[in-house]
Amino acid sequence: MADTNTTNLNLVKPEVGASSDTWGTKINTDLDTIDALFNASPALLVTKGGTGATTAAAARTALSVPAISDLAAYAPLASPSLTGTPSLPTGATAVTQAVDTGGNLIATTGYVVGQGYLKSATASSTYLTSATAASTYQTALGFNPIEQGGGTSQFTNKVRIGWSASSQLRVQVDTTDFGTTWPINISGTAAVANTGGFTLLGTLNTTSGPTQTASLTLTGYRQLYITYGGVSATGNGTLLCSSVVVSPASTNADTLTGVVEIDLNTGFGSALGRNAGAVQSYDGNFGITAASTSITFGWSAAVSFDAGTITLYGVK
Fold it and tell me: For residue 173, which of 163, 162, 164, 165 has the smallest C-alpha distance?
């Protein structure tokens, strides 16, 4: 029977009962082949499929395999909790949940900006008025918002406008409820912009007499705007402006405060008056137009003025 060879290393297996003069050489060659797989450590050479190391730690180092104790520094693949400032590859989005999903889920800044809206009440005014906001967030709103305040001679008061249960459009400025009596000039059914400002036309010191009359030149004005404050009478009554009631009932202990607006095109107007316990609105035909030359204030009862001031303004 002839010599045979091993399957993996192709080592010579001398024929039993033969190779009497050569079997030793064959065995020595086989041993040299096996020895060549190791280094002096001895350790299986990397080039022969080993690690070249004689200890487990050295083998892990050679193969770049972390020790079990080192794994604590790595986040698990399932629901990792990251520290520092993690980042994602360009174009990657770590959130696949629906919009408005809460919790501590990860999202790229690109994903957040791409939502196209802001909900935070503390968002900076600079961001809200940026070019990006104008083109993106207005589209997301679905309507064109109107900026409140910030214009010439405008304050930063919060203006609330809403439809009431009584089918009326009401307005409130800060905590002052004007109800359906809006403090603006109305011509017909449309609000008219105030293009000329307020011009002081006169002042009445209501300290005596049953009536007070102011002489006026109203030509060129669209609206007559009247304020009164600290007005009181010697007895019970309501304040009248051109025979139209413009205040709640008053006793001689009350002082009245309010405003009156008259459209000088139609003569119609409205008023908002207040006494010590109530605020009420009024409207009617004052009969005062741009052609009028005077306006009279009085009382609904036979009483006299004893304090207060009435101030008249023209609006062009």
Answer: 162
